[in-house]
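User: Here's a structure from my thesis project, written as structure tokens. My advisor, Dr. K., wants to see whether a designed sequence matches the one we expressed. Can you design one independently, without my sequence as a hint?
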């Protein structure tokens, strides 16, 4: 730094002190003063202790590295979880489609059952004899008009 100053160039550099038990860093600035002949006659040299700043930079660099590593790990975990959720979403879509098909089948069967019930009622109603239908608990679930006249009540 001093050599550059005597060469007529301003110098500005951060240097490590002579190794000791503690880290020591100096910010050295050298500004040459020129005489009337244009040569360097003197030099202003400023030494500033920047050791605390360097220690903080080191701590910050370590923390930044640790945070970066932690972020990378979290990104990997998030990517893995995203894949799991996408798989679950696909399975859910398949299940949803299967459920919609089952509901459509149930609607179709219900419609068929209603049609068959109407057809059965029409057939039973057209019979002149008394006809009634019971379920597995012997409850009357359907009867024609002739049966209503016989039993004296409507179903």
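Assistant: Designed independently from the structure alone:
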């Amino acid at each position: 730094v001093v050599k550059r100053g005597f060469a007529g160039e301003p110098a500005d550099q951060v240097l490590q002190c002579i190794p000791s038990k503690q880290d020591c860093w100096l910010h050295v600035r050298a500004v040459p003063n020129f005489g009337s002949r244009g040569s360097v006659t003197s030099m202003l040299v400023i030494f500033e202790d920047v050791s605390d700043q360097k220690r903080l930079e080191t701590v910050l660099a370590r923390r930044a590295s640790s945070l970066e590593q932690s972020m990378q790990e979290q990104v990997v975990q998030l990517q893995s979880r995203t894949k799991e959720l996408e798989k679950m979403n696909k399975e859910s879509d398949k299940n949803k489609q299967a459920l919609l098909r089952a509901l459509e089948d149930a609607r179709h069967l219900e419609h068929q059952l209603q049609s068959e019930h109407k057809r059965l009622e029409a057939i039973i109603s057209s019979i002149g004899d008394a006809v009634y239908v019971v379920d597995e608990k012997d409850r009357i679930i359907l009867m024609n008009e002739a049966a209503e006249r016989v039993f004296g009540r409507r179903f």
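When you compare it with your expressed construct, this may help: The chain has a mean pLDDT of 89.
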